[in-house]
Specification:
30% helix, 2 domains, four-stranded antiparallel sheet, ten-stranded mixed sheet, alpha/beta, Alkaline Phosphatase, subunit A, globular, 472 residues
């Protein structure tokens, strides 16, 4: 009896990651049409999951799976400063993650993992198991699997395997929808084959399609969107995709077997995008940023192509779903203008000024401006001096110039309907014990210690999260 119980407690764990999946959709608006996710909730433990700051794919998934915050990891976005020069940026791929993630701990304990599509796994690294790399993989010519021979199996089964869609910021919505569905079908085919044929204790698949659907089609879904199109042929594509993912999750649960604990998780949520705050335009017109030759008004110019007078510049910024603001500090940057002893005074002055930037109607935006030292356990690498969420994340940061005002309703990098919200989802369902239903107050760094606890492995003291209580 004891041996039988021990074997039951050694059940496998299946994790399905849905990038950008929204608690409002999964737990509320769509719940009656998502039978598998709803069944997992009804007998499991579930709730909202507060994301990292910033709440973007990179670094959120790595933070979740290592239980380290972005400051500890030294990863603050897809591209990070390499040094204190003005233009040295580096893509945050797998080489930027210098902490262990869950499969590393499991491998040390002799557990085998299968990992598919998890962000920051390209270039591939060895693990105890099998891996297919993520959406940052350039193409199938690259070495995208571990072991290397797995690549032949993948391409034999799906010669046109896709890691992502070519461009999700496109006006060609028919092509975008087709591309997302084709990518999803190919990934589903491979994932189902792996779950059937490879040995594993831990299996994780991360789907990027939900995120791409939100960015490409949110205006057709959300009546509150500034550019909502009622009665559009795309009105239900997000709903249909969630139903497709729910069906796929049901297939994976069946293939995994009755003894498998299932977790569904997202790195952040989604919200409508009302527009963009042209942060470098604002810095320029408010005396923080100076150009030798001003960018022409009415002609959009990338900040990287502008002729900055660094000897007279105090601050500049990078655009994105959140804003990154950098100060030009004497002795730190090559042509720094801010005396080190004045750094904190100047930073606080700029923080307050950015927080007060109004929206397009001149109204307060409820903008949040963070200092890295206040939100991270450590600040490693080269962090922005300030991180900004404009207008409850209904506004993104726009880095280009030439807009003629501090806001825009058009995204400068292509059509994009949605921004990220601070809360994603988690659902945990252990077939051997009933969960406690809805719980609140968890952050994504709680996921890695929860997984270690499922495998009855020690939780390293360096982990910043706390295992989620799953039974009464």
């Amino acid at each position: 009896m004891v041996n039988l119980l021990q074997r039951r407690r050694n059940q496998r764990v299946l994790v399905i990651g849905l990038d950008c999946a929204s608690p409002k959709l999964v737990f509320d608006q769509f719940q009656d049409s998502l039978p598998n996710l709803t069944r997992l909730r009804n007998t499991g433990t579930w709730g909202r999951l507060r994301s990292s700051i910033p709440c973007i794919t990179v670094p959120a998934w790595a933070s979740m799976l290592s239980s380290r915050d972005p400051g500890v990891m030294g990863v603050y976005g897809f591209r990070n400063r390499v040094n204190y020069s003005y233009d040295a940026l580096q893509l945050a791929d797998s080489t930027a993650v210098r902490v262990k993630r869950i499969w590393d701990y499991l491998g040390d304990a002799g557990k085998q993992s299968v990992i598919v599509g998890v962000p920051q796994t390209y270039p591939v690294r060895p693990l105890n198991g099998h891996l297919i790399s993520d959406f940052m993989t350039p193409n199938t010519d690259a070495t995208f699997t571990f072991p290397a021979l797995l690549k032949q199996e993948v391409l034999k089964q799906t010669p046109d395997y896709r890691f992502d869609v070519r461009e999700f910021r496109t006006p060609d919505k028919d092509d975008l929808l087709h591309s997302i569905l084709e990518m999803t079908a190919r990934q589903m085919q491979v994932v189902k084959q792996l779950i059937r044929t490879k040995p594993w204790d831990f299996f994780m698949y991360m789907n990027i399609g939900v995120d791409r659907m939100h960015h490409g089609f949110w205006r057709y879904h959300d009546p509150e969107h500034r550019f909502h199109v009622p009665n559009s042929p795309y009105a239900n594509v997000i709903f249909d995709y969630y139903r497709q993912m729910d069906s796929f999750i049901g297939e994976l649960i069946t293939l995994a077997g009755d003894d498998t604990t299932v977790m569904v998780v997202s790195d952040h949520g989604v919200t409508r995008m009302d527009g963009g705050i042209c942060i470098n335009e604002w810095l320029w017109h408010n005396g923080w940023l100076t150009f030798k030759s001003p960018p022409p008004e009415g002609q959009l110019t990338r900040f990287e192509d502008c002729d900055v007078d660094w000897s007279k510049t105090k601050a500049w910024a990078s655009g994105g779903y959140y804003g990154r603001i950098f100060l030009n500090v004497r002795g730190r940057e090559p042509q720094g203008t801010i005396a080190p002893e004045n750094y904190e005074t100047v930073r606080e002055l700029l923080r307050a000024a950015i927080a007060a930037i109004p929206d397009a109607d001149g109204q307060p935006m409820n903008t949040q401006v963070f200092k890295p030292q206040a939100i991270y356990q450590q600040v490693n690498g080269i962090a922005p001096d300030l991180l900004t969420y404009f207008g409850d994340l209904h506004w993104r940061a726009v880095g280009s110039l030439g807009h003629g005002r501090h806001y825009t309703f058009e995204n400068d990098t292509g059509p994009d309907d949605a921004n990220h919200a601070e809360h994603g989802i988690f659902i945990i369902n252990d077939p051997h014990q009933r969960g406690i239903g809805q719980v609140e107050g968890h952050q994504l760094m709680d996921i890695a210690p929860t997984l270690l606890e499922m495998f009855r492995l020690p939780i390293p003291s360096a982990m910043q999260g706390t295992a989620i209580r799953r039974t009464s």
